[in-house]
Amino acid sequence: MPVGHLVPEIVLVAGAVTTLLAVLAVPRRLQWIGAPLALATLATSAWFAVDLASDAAQQITFFGTWAIDGATTWARGVVLLATAVVVVMSPEWFARDPRHGEYYPLLVLSALGATLVAGAADTMQLVIGVLLSSVTGYTLAGYHRRSALSVEAAMKYFLVGALANTLLTLGVVLLFGMVGSTLYEATAAGLAGRATDPIAAVAAAAAVGVGLAFKLGAVPAHAWLPDIAQGAPAPSAALLTVVPKVGGLVALARFVQLLPVEQVGWRPWAALVAAATMTLGNLAALWQDDLRRLLGWSSVSQSGYAIMAVVALGRSDLAVPALLYFLLAYVLANLAAFAVVTELRGRTALDAYAGLARRRPLLAAVLVVSFLSLVGIPPLAGFAGKLALFGAVIEGGYAWLAGVAVANTVVSLFYYLRVLGPLYFEVRREPVPVLGRWAGTAAGVTAVAVVAVGVVAEPAFDALSDVLLLPH
Amino acid sequence: MTLTTLLLVAGALLAIGVYGALSQQSFVMLMMGLELMLNGVLLAAAGFWALTAGGVPEGQLLVVVVLVVMAVEMVLGFALVVAVYRARQVDMTEGVDSMRG
Amino acid sequence: MLTATILVPLIGAVALGSARGVSERAARAGAVTIAAVPLALLIAAWSRFDPGSGRLFQLVEAAPWIPTLGVAYRVGVDGVALVIATASALLFTVSAAYPADTRDRPRHYYAWLLFLEAVSLGVFLALDLLLFYVFFDLSLVGMYFLIGEWGHGDAKRSALKFFLFTLAGSLTMLLGILGLALATEPLTFDMATLIRHQPLAGEGLRSSLVLLGLLFGLGVKTPVVPLHTWLPPAHVDAPGPASAILAGVLLKMGTYGMIRIPFAMMRATFAQWALVLAVIGVISAVYGALVALGQSNLKRRIAYTSVNHMGYVVLAIAAAGGVLAGDEPGRELAITGATTQMVAHGLVTGALFLVAGSFWQRTQDYDIDAYGGLARPAPALTGVTTVAAFASLGLPGLAQFVAEFQIFVGTFSVYPALAAVALLGVLITAALFLQLLQKIFLGDLPARWADFPDLHRSEAVTLGVLVALIVAIGVYPRWLLDAIAGSSRILIGGGS
Amino acid sequence: MLWLTFLLPVAGASALWPWPAIAARGRDPQPADEARDRWVLGVGGVTVVVATLALAMRAAVTRPRSVLEWGGGLILTLEVDRTAAVVAVLVPVVAAPIVAYAAAHEPHRGLGRLVALLVAFVGAMQLLVVAGDLLTLLIGWELVGAVSWALIGHEWWQPEPPGAAAHAFNVTRFGDLGLFLAAAAAFHATGSLRYADLGALDGAALHVVVAGSVLAAAAKSAQVPFSPWLFSAMRGPTPVSALLHAATMVAAGAYLLARLQPVLAMAWWFGPTAIGLGLATALTGGVVAALHPRAKELLAASTSAQYGLMFVAVGAGSTAAGLAHLVAHAAFKSLLFLAAGVAIAAVGSGRLGRMRLGAPLRTVALLTLTGTLALAAIPPLGGAWTKEEVVAAAGERAPWVALLTIAAGGLSAFYAARFQLLAYGPTRRDGALRHVRPPGRTETIAIGVLATFTVALGLLWIPGAGQLVETVAGGTLPEGRAWELVVSLLLVGAGTYAAVVLARRQQLATLGTSPHGAADWLGIPTLAQAAVIDPTLALCRTLARFDDRVVDAGVRAAAAVARAGSRLVTTLSGRGVDGAVEALAAAARRAAGAGSRFDDAGVDGVVEALAAGVGAAGRDSRRLQTGYAHHYYVIVAAGAVVTVVALALWA
Amino acid sequence: MTRALLVEVAFWVFALAALVSGWRVFRTDSMVRASFLLLTSFLNVGGILLLLSAEYLGLALLFMMAVEMMVMAVFMVMFMMNPAGLNPMQMVHQHAAAVGAGVVMFGGMATVAFAAAFPDRPVRTSHGLIESLGSELLGDSMLVFQSAGVTLLAAMVGAVALASRRGRFGDGDEGSVPPPLDPHASPDVTAAGRGDGAHGHHAHVAGHEDHGGHGGHEGHG
Fold first, then answer.
1. Considering only alpha carbons, which residue of chain A is nearest residue C140?
2. B101 to chain E nearest CA, in Å?
3. Digit-coded pLDDT (tens) for C432-457
4. Which residues of A touch B69 (CB under 8 A)?
5. Nearest to B93 among D625, D630, D637 (CB)
6. Which of A32-36, A291-295, C353-357, D599-603 has the lowest mean pLDDT?
């Protein structure tokens, strides 16, 4: 049993438990101790992940239940990075909450959940990973127990999640019924054979697809995302708008490749979902007067873009690199935006951002970089991401989808500029208090990363050029 | 007791569950609908294990996984119902609608 | 050397933007100095450029960027790019020197101007499709902030409209670029390679779609009717120097891109669709002129003449690519004329928009009918405007005549009827500019403009430079045309 | 060297223009300054023109050819052939006295500009004349037009001149388009723009070149239907009318036809067209001149008519006759304009009915008479000889052509006499000798010089002069027929007699007083206004409005449909199945509302409409997010159904 | 009666009981009763599992559900209004849509049941099934099993964090609000005013209540 292939995850479990025990032991003044412990955990896990990626070949391991391919490694990296940024943002935000110690182990477990989702090569494992990611997510979303909005967001997250997970489970059971196994490799082989027929396969794929759409914040299970962005504690919102998506997308990409295209039209379906998701997200974001909610909807639309890569899977060599690179770009830009919101003490009314450029020029600059990257203005990371996505779908024969994405990008520019315009063009005199040092640092670092990853994109694309998405 | 009859019963349970999940105002009742759905899934899983998969151990584990899903979702669900009730004195879906649009 | 032309203003922009305690004067002086560096470098590049060498791209500098995707940093020039880039650098220097109301934010104003200069030059110097796109897009960002922050009237809305509209165009172009580049094996965005290999040649629908995507994107920027509606508000609400750059530099990106990408890289497909493009060009020319004549707002009127003039350029490009072989002298003339028109229109319309900016600074009124008889209090302004107006209506001895003559003569070889129709634009332009001069400068002087200030020294000097160049090109254009013609020949011949 | 005939006047002009301002050194002008300015400008201007004349004469003798690479394959060629030599010499000859007159006669305000532009015009005209290819010709052609604009609008502070200048420019520019086309066609067919290569033309290109040239020539020479622009040009100062709009610039059309006649004649229809145009203009112009109540307009109409005669000559194939008449006309018509200027200055009005300055301005009246007689074509003046040559040329074609030409000659005799009798005729009995402003010495001398020139052309009647003309101008002169001469002289006499009779009855001045009647070019301007200018301007305004809003109609309608659709989807999913019917009704209501709002939308751009549509869709799509979790469940359920359908459908 | 017939009859009894009790869950006025009906449904499904020779799983389900439903019933009594279902109540919305969704769901599953061709590999023997489950849990599917364990841990931690009334440091939810926009504002403000940054903590967004306010529960409808 190659336990070594799971060291990064084992580290996360151990770290989470250690952190939990530590925060239970220390007095309320020292609850922040969870943050450095969580950071250390994440760093150690990342270190092992890198180590593992350089040592072990890309393969399916652990009796066929676990894929340690480039996609998993990349997802691990992105998830750990994102979680680390959120950990840095958290202590100042939760300073008033004497029980925020438990928040950190939950963050670590949430990262673990997303990683498990990404690496799952077994449908049961997928369900468990989704479940772990979900339960930690509900908790993180509702962590402001006294805040009406926070618990409301958590409740809706839970309600949508519970239904979606039930559907996911149903789909997994149907798949098992068809092929008699839950392993991906066996599933793919079983579905490809003539033993099954399209009806059950379609039903199973639909159930799994809708279930995973919840993780992505994609249509039709997208409704939780704007609420989470608006109502959840800002660090949780930052985490939940990015981390589950990373796992969910890799999982979706892995999963659809198991389906025989002649029986299950997953490619057009994914295109449909991509188009609907990006369009709905952008349209709904247009007139938001609440920045966090706007970011939530924009996050929905970004999921739509990301799903474009799924459409092109197997038809374009660019699909997997596009998917993974775009995820990184999106995660960084979105985190930067939420870090700014956090640093501004959760300031969220659009009007309250007018004139920010003169009061807080650096934070304003971070917001500009983040938004322009989300639009896809070169040379920021979002541009290279969208470029690769467009290239992938065009090569995959879905040029119309690229057209839809272009139209959506133009629409999205409108609402981003609704923020950025007043940010720069108006003059306000009120003071703009900030939270502290760390959230601001997180904002700055992620913004620099957005620029750096965009300008120096070659290492990423080089690394991604031979990434596999097993078992395909 | 054929696979078809099993799946029909499971489907009926799922249908009742879906109805409950969609129609109930109270969070708790709504969750009962979800439970009922999972009940159907459970039945289907067991049926598949026994009738199409030749009793492979994975199938039993799958049933356990469904049970875990059931348990975990309910635990968190109840915790959230408590939290929402404490923060807002509300126990129905219509009561939490401050965020919309 | 070419890299420095992009880097110097970029670094200058960053330095100026992050400096502290810089006075308005110092910021302007610094900006002018920095903006002039690329101009000097490009003039030096001109001296080293050999139009007769038979090679299209010269002074090439390259560095790997994203080799995995076939993207590299490649800059270089052919004759077309060289003259347009040089004219742009000049226009930036002049615009920086032109007095503007910076609203107490001189550093930012000049920093954005320099940023815009860097990326605009990048567009013209890039030899990699993706690099081209990067600069193309960034120019929108720079212009958005310039209009939004320092514009007047409904500036924010106009800036927004500008950004949205042109981003729609540039993204469509991006799809086209991808469609084109993805047809290469191995994947590359290198312009020289793409010109040599002509990917997608003879691939029916796909190549047509790619071409239309490219033309749509570039057509928005040019702009051609009916994609032009972003132009008037952007111009009207932009500060004078920004308008000058918008008309003189940014619009050129569209037509330059047409020559560079669809014309050169998809010759067969371009020839299929050239007639459609030519008709659009003619419609733009005539429609733009007619609508301009119907305007009573000074800046709108000038803005619509841009539609007219760029329509000629589009027509010429379409004609030059309208057939794959035959009529070489005429098609060469068309391409040379199109390029000359880009340079000339940049200088002429740049001057006109700077003049319009001067009007705004003096009176905050663009209504042509509100003026009259200004020749008495402001003879120098009258003189400059008259020269620019006559240049714009294509008077011989001034720059634009050279261009338009070549365009008409060249286009006639391929599309005689369209050339004849487009000629009507020349007539209408004449009418509208004479009417403009008459209404503003001639006739009765309303009492309230009795002490209308004439040009200040800095205005006079900057406009003087433009006028001198307009005359220089008009009288003896050989120095300009010879630099272009060598490349035109290669482009027409299809070599690289 | 040849370039100097163009560059020297231009350089001279740029020196003369700022002179008064430099001399004044920023002070207000003093009376003494005025005299000095007049002297400097006059002497300077005449010197430059005379120097140009010297250059032109040298060129006329040496017939040089000069080539300039303009770059990009364009080559400017200067070439002097016989035709060019004649006109190149003629232009400065006429210009010199006119420049002197202008410096002495015109108001001081803007005098530097006036003289400078006149001198610059000489340069531009020389370029036009010595051009050896269509591009150079076009450059000169447009430059003289622009200078004409500036000179007509010389008194820019007045309400009328700027508009008149623009009118003149626009009309002539329409003709310029013909040259553009001709150049394009020539280049397409031969790869060259040189006159010398035009001989190789055939087929469609030839016809385009000929048609373009004829169009340009007709517009420039104020032939029907372009003639009215010359009336607008009369808003300019008198010297301008004399130089540009009588002697030289207007001559460019006739000159061009003469210069290119061998090429043009290759098209079978050139001759008839030119003759037709020329005759039409000669006759209508004659009628207009006979009726018009104002002095300069009378002369302008006569100018059109006389150039019509030259068109007839060239069309009939006799460039020599046309050219000879061109020279003669330049001499006497500039003389008459200067005389008219003196008369107008004397009485302060351009109306012929107010003048009759024969008594107070006896000298000028006598000098004028030479011009009038030449215009009336009464031997032994040169004008008569050249006119008879034109008649002879016309007779070569057909007798009826000759007859019509003779009729036009009769008209010109009538209006020439009318001009003389009204402007410088015997003073009215009722009006006592009024106080009039006498002309200065310089003006008189200038008129005298031109009168001398006019008279000197009488030498053409000397036998053998015809051969000299043939040598100088090239081509052959037709043999005149005796009956033509007799009939012609009879008609001239008749015309003159009619004028005298009418003058006795005091009816000569009041012919056709209505400004909109026949005197106003037979209503061509009104027609042009109604048929071309007004519709164009209306179209422009409509298009401008259209551009602002109507283009969007389609887009807006599409947006409205999208909006309604999005609402429908929204309401359906938002309210669940129960609400579907209700929702449909609501959507219909809203669609109707959208329709009415659409009308109220007002002035909006294309993109605004699209944006409004998207924006509305944005607002509507937010309604999907009701805030109720059970609605989200419906969305998920519906999404699952759609997913099943999609997966099954596209497999 | 053969064993097969017996099994068949038992199956239908269990199935009908499961369905009827499941349906009654949403047709009763009392939540407590509803939770017991749900339990009944589960128990009957457990019975079917036993018939399918999944003894261990069936029993596990029985025990687990028994406990869970007890918790749920207690829950009703403790927290919910109208705990004992003394007053008749019908708390249902979008009834038609829900019925429609249920019908579609059943239709879909029925289609699968009738039309889909599943492999026919019935379980051979009931012997050793439980052992094989054990070895699966600690063998091939150990990752799944362990992950499930971690998930349960996370669920516990999360549930406690969210729901506990008393924490280690006093009130379980003390200070669990976002930081105020103005750092100098009084510490005990809730997030109610977050919607409007310009007015800091003074503003209240209509529609939600301060947690401190005891305005009571707003009725629906």
1. A377
2. 14
3. 999 999 999 999 999 999 999 999 99
4. 127, 131, 165-166, 169
5. D630
6. D599-603
CB distance C107 to C22 below 8 Å:
yes
Query: Would you call C68 an interface residue with chain A, using a CB distance cutoff of 8 Å?
Result: yes
Tokens, residue D578: 């129960």
Q: Is D366 on the interface with E (CB under 8 A)?
A: no
Other CB atoms within 10 A of residue D5 CB: 28
Closest-CA distance, B61 to chain D, in angstroms, reads 27
What percentage of chain C reaches a pLDDT higher than 90? Answer: 84
Among A127, A142, A154, whose Cβ lies nearest the Cβ of B65? Answer: A127
CB spacing of B59 vs A170 below 8 angstroms = no
Q: Which residues of C touch A453 (CB under 8 A)?
A: none
Is residue D465 within 8 A of residue D459, CB to CB? The reply is yes
Calculate the dihedral angle through the C-alpha atoms of B7, B13, B17, B23, rounding to the nearest 10 degrees.
110
pLDDT at E212: 38
Work out the mean pLDDT of chain A and round it to a whole number. 94
pLDDT exceeds cutoff 90 at D72:
no
Picking from E94, E103, E106, E205 by the largest number of D CB atoms within 10 A of its own CB, the best residue to mutate is E94
pTM comes to 0.91
Which pLDDT score is estimated for D627?
Answer: 86
CB atoms inside a 10 Å sphere around CB A362:
14
**Closest Cβ–Cβ partner in B34, B38, B99 for A152:** B99
Tell me whether residues E161 and A139 touch, CB distance under 8 A.
Answer: yes
- Select from B54, B56, B47, B58 the least CA-distant residue to B2: B47
In this complex, which chains have at least 3 CB pairs below 8 Å with chain A?
Answer: B, C, D, E
Q: What is the pLDDT of residue A118?
A: 96
B-chain residues near D638 (CB < 8 A): none
Say if D566 is an interface residue toward chain A (CB within 8 Å): yes
Q: What does the DSSP 8-state code read for residue D475?
A: S
CB atoms A152 and B61 under 8 Å: no
Q: Which residues of A touch B31 (CB under 8 A)?
A: 162
- CB contact under 8 Å between E81 and B88, yes or no, is no
d(CA D321, CA D262): 15
Arithmetic mean of pLDDT, C287-296? 90
Over residues A443-454, the mean pLDDT reads 96
Q: Least CB-CB distance to A173: which of B44, B76, B101? A: B44
**Rounded Cα gap, residues B98 and B96, in angstroms:** 6
Q: How far apart are CA D263 and CA D206, in angstroms?
A: 8
Give the mean model confidence (pLDDT) for residues C242-254: 95
**The residue count for chain B:** 101
Q: Running DSSP on this structure, what letter comes out for residue E191?
A: G
- Stated length of chain A: 472
D65 phi/psi in degrees, rounded to 5: -140, 135
Query: Quick one: average pLDDT of D64-69?
Result: 93
Which residues 6+ apart lie within 8 Å of A148 measured at CB? B87, B88, B98, E190, E191, E192, E208, E209, E210, E211
Option in D611, D625, D647 nearest A202 (CB): D647
Which candidate from A138, A152, A173 shows the least CB-CB separation from B48?
Answer: A173
Q: C-alpha distances in angstroms, C383 versus C348, C376, C387, D620?
A: 14, 11, 6, 56
pLDDT above 70: residue D550: no
Rounded Cα gap, residues A182 and A193, in angstroms: 16
